[in-house]
Structures are given as C-alpha cells and as structure tokens.
Amino acid sequence: MITRSRQVALALTVLLTAGAACQARDNEAQGRPGPAAGAFTLVASGGVLPHDSIIERALFDGGGAGHDFRPMLAGVEPVVSRADLALCHLETVTGADGDYSGAALLKSPPQLADGLAATGYDGCSTASDHSLDDGVDGIHRTLAALDRAGMRHAGTARIAAERTAAVLPAGPAAQVAHLSYTYGTNGRPLPQGQPWAVNLIDEKKIVADARAAREAGAEVVVVSVHWGTEWQEKPDARQLALAERLTAAATGGRPDIDLILGTHARVPQAYEKVNGTWVVYGTGDQIAGVTTDARGRQDPRGSQSTIGRFTFSPPGRPGGRWRVTKAEFVPQLFDVDAGRVVNLNRALEQGADVRGVRDRIRDVVLSRGAAKDGLVMGK
By its UniProt entry, which CDD domains does this protein fall under (predicted)? Predict the structure, then answer.
C-alpha cells in the first residue's frame, strides 16, 4: 500500500525535476552566475501587505493607467536579485476587476506579483490570516497572478495536489522545498470540502510534509510560518515551543527542516539558532501603510523589517545536511511618505540619518544571542 506520505513524495519528485529545468532556464535568461563549489545564497523578506495608501501609491507610480510596484521595491532589488533564491511573503490575496482594498478585507492588484518578480523574487509563501479574505476565488486569482509572473508559491492551493511544497532549484546543485503555514484565517472557516485550500499550522503535518519533500529529493527544506503576537518583539511561548519541536524533528539523524521563516507580528523579531537550525521568529512587514497598534496608536515599528540572507554549503558526504555557513540580516525601513522600501545600511552610506532605526532593529534581531552563533548584519 502506498502511504499518503509516499504519495506526496512521488508528486514532489515530478515537481523537483520540472523545477530544476525551469530554474536553469531562468538563470540563463537573467544572467545569474552560479555560486562557487555548489553553495547558494537564499534571501527571505517580510510581509507584503498593501494597505490603501500602498495601492494608491502603486497607481501613481503606474501613471494612473495601472499599478506599478517596481519603484516601491527598487531599493532592495540589489539584495534580492543577486541571491540564488529569493522568497517573499505575500500576505494578501488578489482582487478582481478593480475591486482592490487595503483595509479590513485585503485585496491587492494583480500587478503586485509582477513587481515582486521584477525585483528578483522566485517564490512566495501565501498562507496567512488574510488568505480567505476573498474566499476561494481570492486564492485562485492570487495563485494565477503568481503563475503568470513566473513565481512559485506555497501555503494555499486550488486543488489538493497543490498543497505540497513549492520546489525551487538554487545554485548549480541544490533543490529547495518551500512549505508555508498560518496560525489561522481570522475566524473564516476553510472552504467546505477543501481543507487543503489553506495550510494551517499543525506540527505533525509540517513534519510529515517536510519528510515527504526530503524523500522526494529536496536537499534543503524551508518552512514559512505565519505566527506570533502582533506588535510583540519578543517571540511568544507558542513560537518558542513550536520552533523547539520542529527543529528537533529528524530522520536518520538528519534534521527534517533546515530553516524556519516567521511573519505576522508586524514588527521585527529575533533570529535564533535552535537545535542547530536557524529560526527567524519574525521579519516584520516589508511593505505596509501607516499602521496602528492594538490601542489605535500609530507605531513606526510597523514600517521596519529585515531580510534574512543565508548561505548554504553542500555536505561533505552524500546524504549529509546542507549547512548554513553564513547567516546575515539586512535591516529595512518602508518610507511611508515616499512609498519606497529602504535598505538602511545603504541609506547610511548615502548620508541619511537612519542610524537610530537601524540600530534598534539590530538590537531586536540579536536579542536572543544570535551573534554568538555567527549572525551578522549585511548590506
């Protein structure tokens, strides 16, 4: 009898093979050099959450004829496009026929996917508390927009088979499986008869999916989790407990998960090495409008975020673990007045007075001792 895990693994094997060919063509077309000795760099950024002001800015940048998100993201394009693999977190769904909203039920223009792709992103996690803001149709439109932009996606699905990992080749040798889960959908029930439409956090399911991806041939397994307490810089008890258990899961002495990427808290949170695996508890939001906290007060931290950058190197023996040999974070700010993402270290080099914001983000990121495990601030 073929088990469910084996069925998933067989499906992923097909995706791994197809994904490798697609990525090779993408790299050739974009002129991306492969990293030396088989190593590759992976970058991952925070939530893309277009509020009304963001949608209006994109319309202005598009000259009024359409929405253009490329100028908004231009400040991080050098970091994103130079990585071998770049992952984003698309927190909203795509609206239909001009019905776009950045308040309450969030529905973004389809051109958002084009802007992310033009910036250099290869794929997005899509499981979030807003995944069902426009029901099943919203999921379908979102994934169709990403497909048209040539981007992979994980976390939401149109059919049951699509809920498996997105497979993204990285560098000359590695196959990376990307999985995505959310704590919930703001009280909206999963569509009747479609429990696979949104991946909800379930420890056993996450581990099973990671093992299936590994069995199918993925050298590196990355898990995105939409979790945590909004406006809280310290990871909460549930984040800490789940991170501990997921990083402890192993098969044959090899960890099942190689990197955990967290979103949802609205503010940057710490990075930490847990059981030998890097965990980003919260990146913050890469794009968001003016935000207010639980008491209705404007909170500038909602415009602050990080990009994680991890260099993975191949194992010394067949079947061994690909290890992170360099771990970095790049502090960012979304300038809500200009409607632009700002790389704070680059801005400092150009004379901008942003040292206080940069240093505050740095202190939060390093607050759980990641510096002793080698985490450094990058540009």
Answer: MPP_CapA
Of all residues in the chain, what percent carry a pLDDT higher than 90? 85
Position 28, amino acid: E
Distance of CA 197 to the CA centre of its chain: 18
Report how far residue 244's alpha carbon sits from residue 24's, in angstroms, rounded to the nearest whole number: 35
The per-residue DSSP string of 320-360 comes to ---EEEEEEEEEEEEETTTTEEEEHHHHHHTT-S-HHHHHH
Delineate the domains of the chain, giving CATH numbers in brackets: 4-377 (3.60.21.10)
Please state the rounded mean pLDDT for residues 53-70: 96
What is the token pair recorded at 360? 């505050």
Distance CA 170, CA 188 (A): 36
DSSP string, 70-97: HHHHGGGHHHHHTSSEEEEEE-SEE-ST
pLDDT digits (tens, 9 = 90+) for 347-360: 999 999 999 999 99
Helix (H) or strand (E) holding 111: helix 111-119
pLDDT confidence of residue 31: 42
Q: CA angle, corner 45, sides to 103 and 64, nearest 5?
A: 45
Torsion of CA 101, 102, 104, 106, to 10 degrees: 70
Q: Which residues contact 47 (CB under 8 A, 6 or more apart)?
A: 89, 91, 128, 263, 264, 283, 284, 285, 286, 287, 288, 305
Q: What is the pLDDT of residues 298-353, one digit of tens each?
A: 899 999 999 999 999 999 888 899 999 999 999 999 999 999 999 999 999 999 99
Give me the pLDDT at residue 204, please. Answer: 98
Phi-psi region of 94 (alpha: psi -120 to 50; beta: other; left: phi over 0): beta
Q: Are strands 174-182 and 220-226 parallel, antiparallel or unpaired?
A: parallel
DSSP string, 271-303: EEEETTEEEES--BEEEE-S-B-TTS-B-GGGG
For 166, residues 6+ apart whose C-beta sits below 8 A from its C-beta are 15, 123, 152, 153, 154, 177, 178, 179
Helix, strand, or coil (residue 121): coil
